[in-house]
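Reviewer comment 2.1 asked that we show a complete input and output for one of the modelled complexes. We chose the protoporphyrin IX containing FE case, as it is the one discussed in the main text.
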Amino acid sequence: LFDLIWRPYIITKRFEKQGVRGPPYKFRMGAKQEMKDIQKGAETLVLDSRSHDIACKVLPHYQAWSSQYGTTFLYWMGTQPRICLGDPEMVKQVLSSKFGFYAKTYPGANIMAIMGKGLAFIEGSDWARHWRVINPAFHIDKLNMMAKTMAECVLHTLSEWEKQGNDNKTLEIEVSRQFEELTCNIISHSVFGTSDSINGKKIFEAQKELFLITIADFNGSMRYLPTKKNLKKWKLEKRMKNALTSIINSRLDNSKKLGYGDDLLGLMLHSSFPVNDNNSSLSIDEIIDECKTFYFGGHETTSQLLTWTMFLLSTNPEWQERLREEVLKECGTETPNTDMLSKLKLVTMVLWESLRLYPPAILLARDASKDMNLGGLMIPKGTGLMIPILMLQRDKEHWGEDANEFNPLRFENGASRAARHPNSILPFSIGPRACLGQNFAMLEARLVFAMMLQRFSFSLSPKYKHSPVNWLTLQPQFGLPIDLRPLHQ
Ligand code: HEM
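Response of the prediction step:
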């Protein structure tokens, strides 16, 4: 009864005294039912494809509560108090904390099974040990080397499209699926250097199927029972593990002749058999978990960046033309190298505007691991801290009245100067747990659009329905059908 009635009552009162209010706590459920009701109303909404005001569709409860209680508010997820942070200064304090006071929220067994207990979900000295091994795989010199491999993968996809579009005719392609395949291919080849495309494919297919099962059923209460769904899940998990083990074993078998390699997998294997540095070694099980993290995290988010940018360029033909001019000026019709890509200022501005309006990760979550004072607000241990990236990135107070409009010019002087507060833009997060793959993803996206703009012009197919949904990442619910026209035959 203490946890179910008294504690919620006391905590609610304490927050009220500090000026933080929110939807009322209901016995055991907190605000879960109210949240479900609000979400249900938004589920079937289809928006006008010129509207980027998508909070009403993907975070309708946050929108409703923040307009009623202010952008920083309290709500109860069952018996856990959660504070939604609407102030970029508080967000900065939480994300920049170096001492693990705000730990990552446990994502649930289903997500762990897909992504593995890798860098994104571990804490403390384990995180530091993994980070020391993995970080060098993303240094700038390594990225420069990866660009060539990335370009080969992009060329392969675009040539397939060219082959389909005979006689200068318009060709309709559902690009979100194509981008998923392309980003999978890029991560396998450039980060794992794998020519083992069969096992690479098996991993992605197993992760995708597990993911679809997970979004259809978040109820973990039966997770140990041999239900039909669980048997399927266990089979897929096993298939994924076997495929990863096979990739690792083949690298180990070839290591006498070729060494472990200097890509991510090679660096992890080096650490696993260290000569003198035992402080940063990873076990084979840990390597398998990291592979899952990078296979999934490395493509799922980037493919959404490509998808939403394609959507924005298709609906803003004048920007598409400006970008094409820039690409042809800096790269001509050659395959772009990293020097050329670094000169694509307008392309980069459009990518940032896309990440602002359609961030692949719309929310970040942390838990206070002890009682904390957050910018004067007393936060009891165990409170969840929710950082609504999607809301912060379209807050009119920081972005101005045109916050919901597509206007890449706001990024003319760089991302940190685009809004009134430098941390109002957070697609890759900030602080010690910021995205390790940010430069990789931006390089990949610049390359894809440079090569695509060299070859095609495109517009939205009339079949498109504007219905963004948050299925772990922000996605177009019915895909993104695009009409493509080859520029040269
Ligand atoms: C547009 C593409 C991407 C976006 C928007 C994105 C976004 C993010 C965000 C928001 C986080 C922080 C999560 C949190 O704090 O809870 C994160 C972490 C991470 N991302 Fe990305 N990501 C992208 C691409 C990539 C790629 C391509 C890779 C790998 C090749 C990658 C690897 C990681 C890893 C390993 C972490 C965990 C870092 C840590 O906790 O130390 N990401 N990403």
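Residues 79 and 445 are 41 Å apart (CA to CA). We note this here for comparison with the apo prediction described in Section 3.2.
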